[in-house]
Amino acid sequence: MAERKILVLFGSQTGTAEDMADRIGREARRRHFACRVEALDSYSVVNLIHETLVIFVCATTGQGDPPDNMKNFWRFIFRRNLPQNSLCRMDYAVLGLGDSSYPKFNFIAKKLHKRLLQLGAHPILSPALGDDQHDLGPDAAVDPWLKNLWNKVLSLYPLPPGLSLISEDIRLPPKFVLRFLDQEVAMEAGILKKVDAHAIPTELHPFQAPLVSNQQVTAADHFQDVRLIEFDISGSGIQYSPGDVVMIQPQNSPQDVEKFCTLLQLDPKRVFLLEPHDLDTPLPPQLPQPCTVRHLVERYLDIRCVPRRSFFQLLSYFSLDEQEREKLQEFSSAAGQDELYTYCNRLRRTTLEVLVDFPHTTCNIPVDYLLDLIPRIRPRAFSIASSLQAHPDRLQILMAVVQYRTKLHEPRRGLCSTWLASISPSDGVKIPLWVKKGSLKFPSDPDTPVIMVGPGTGVAPFHAAIEESAALNKTGICLFFGCRGKNTDFYFHEEWAELEKRGILTLFTAFSRDQEDKIYVQHRIKENAAFVWDLINIKQAYFYLAGNAKSMPTQVTDALKEVFQKEGTMSSEEAEQYLIMLEKSSIVIFHKAQ
Ligand code: 2AM
Fold first, then answer.
1. How far is the centre of ligand 1, averaged over its atoms, from the C-alpha of 512 (Å)?
2. Nearest alpha carbon to residue 96 among 78, 83, 84, 108
């Protein structure tokens, strides 16, 4: 009989694909498969030629890009010199996770499927296209697909004689065992891995950057608290350009850590070694060995995330109370998904809050299961707001502190922005960070003029580009900036007034709430049609748009088309075609801000 072995490989940016891959791994083990679940870039891709059954779980990020932990795989698999039939032994299925509000919906999953076909592998199903926009999340499309997958897999690789499906009522062993050491190592601070002084910081070796300033740039009574935060990166080896992105690894607050440890009766000072239950399972590379409980809870376990369905299923096994167990089982059943959505997702209830709600279960969670239950804290991406030319050895971000209310008593707070906003330079706290190339590129020719449209914190990468131009005395930058009010959130206004005086910047502002009728950046573009047309058509300017407001990109696009029609005497069809042509040649760039 064929070897019953499944490899699950994932490319995950926010953790959804990783969670899905873990779920497939658990379901495979219930069907008595030997199963290994791994990030695509941790897997040694040359071994793929020996694999017989692989499930790929891949997210698509941003503008149709692969997640960071599959970028090397992506480059490898598209090498031209790979032999045509190199994967002819392999059966596979691709599960895609994407967001249909982006133009390149599930692009990576679709492209991977085509490439694997080209290399001679055999699909056992057509790809699943999970959609974040669906009310019930990606599970809506994925659940029926998974059902088909297991039917198909079991028809190809039937259960061994005498064995049956392990029921969901029986819990599987944990992925890792925490082997506690006797000593309480007085090494909490020293536990951070020493970074090689010459290496460029990465996710596994972040730079521990001192925070040197944390300035609120919105008025104290403004609805939103926006911070300009500066880090000292001297000695890090980090280089960056305007348009690049900084990744920051946030951590839980000391209050949350204490609360969690008390609930689960954990001693934060204890030290453990992590051992995989199954030798095939790779250790999480972000965790030091040995590790303290405090480090695990503070820096690794995302106890503030909204828990997923698999969390409730696993939790139900530990219940010492009939009522709690029934409720948890309901939340993890297909029929209970609406109720789970109402209890958890709609209110953005956190894992920590759920644990408080189920005290008779929480007190009985075996420590070994923590890494199965709770996902890891993901790094957060921010557009870099500064230029190295203007601030050598420094890096700035412009960050809105995420806080909003739901029906729950406590306001919801973003983990990373709340943490960063709470730090003052005198605290001496160091922030783990590293830098990534951004998808936003500014023209290398210093004579090319640029038009930038960036309302709100979307202006961050443009601030970097403008600072860089100013440091190099370049001219020809035009910025359309939108905010609510001249006196509330018009950040950088003094700096920009100075640059206008020097003839480096032409600034158009749209204060949406300083008068009765809304004025937005697109209105200013239309009012200045002749100027914009001249820049794009005669002076060959590049046009950039960044920001998060939902309908803003479409409305700015429409404004541009109006400019083309009016000033270029084009029909609406011609204006549309002209814009498409500019976008294709990367002269017009629409960028979702990070
Ligand atoms: P508003 O909140 O008053 O509607 C930064 O967030 C700025 O972007 C604010 O002034 C905000 O205005 C504005 N904004 C909101 N929706 C927009 C849209 N569709 N187009 C352009 N600007 C928008």
1. 7
2. 108
* Pairing of β 226-232 and β 394-400: antiparallel
Query: Measured between alpha carbons, how far is residue 392 from residues 215, 310, 321, 399 in Å?
Result: 19, 46, 59, 21
Strands 207-216 and 430-436: antiparallel
Joined together, the tokens standing for residue 468 give 């860089």
Q: How are beta strands 176-180 and 271-276 bridged, if at all?
A: antiparallel
Atom of ligand 1 nearest to the CA of 511: 10
C-alpha 72/C-alpha 59 separation (Å) is 15
Nearest to 404 by CA among 414, 412, 396: 412
Strand, helix or coil at 126? coil
- ipTM confidence score: 0.98
**pLDDT tens for each residue of 292-302:** 999 999 999 99
pLDDT, tens digit, 9 for 90 and up, residues 371-405: 999 999 999 999 999 999 999 999 999 999 999 99
For residue 117, which phi and psi values (nearest 5 degrees)? -60, -45
Two tokens at 93?
């299925």
Pairwise CA distance, residues 363 & 222, whole Å:
42
Q: How far is CA 370 from CA 167, 280, 410, in A?
A: 22, 19, 25
Specify the ligand 1 atom closest to the Cα of 522. 21
Residues in the chain: 594
CB 106 within 8 A of CB 65: no
Give one DSSP letter per residue of 212-253, joined into a string.
EEEEE-S-TTSSS-EEEEEEE-TTS-----TT-EEEE-----
Q: Establish whether the linkage from the previous residue to 290 is cis, with ω within 30° of 0.
A: yes
Ligand 1 centroid, distance to 550 Cα (angstroms): 9
Q: Supply the residue whose CA is at minimum distance from atom 2 of ligand 1.
A: 484
Decide: 482 in ligand 1 pocket, CB within 6 A.
yes
C-alpha span between 478 and 492 (Å, rounded): 15
Q: Which two tokens stand for residue 541?
A: 């300017």
Distance from the CA of 442 to the center of ligand 1, in angstroms?
A: 25
- Of 298, 261, 284, nearest to 419 by C-alpha is 298
pLDDT digits (tens, 9 = 90+) for 158-203: 999 999 999 888 889 999 999 999 876 555 545 544 555 568 999 9
Give residue 495 CA to ligand 1 midpoint distance, Å: 22
Structure tokens at 351: 């894992």
Element (H, E) at 30: helix 16-30
Strands 34-39 and 5-11: parallel
Contact of 476 with 448, CB cutoff 8 Å: yes
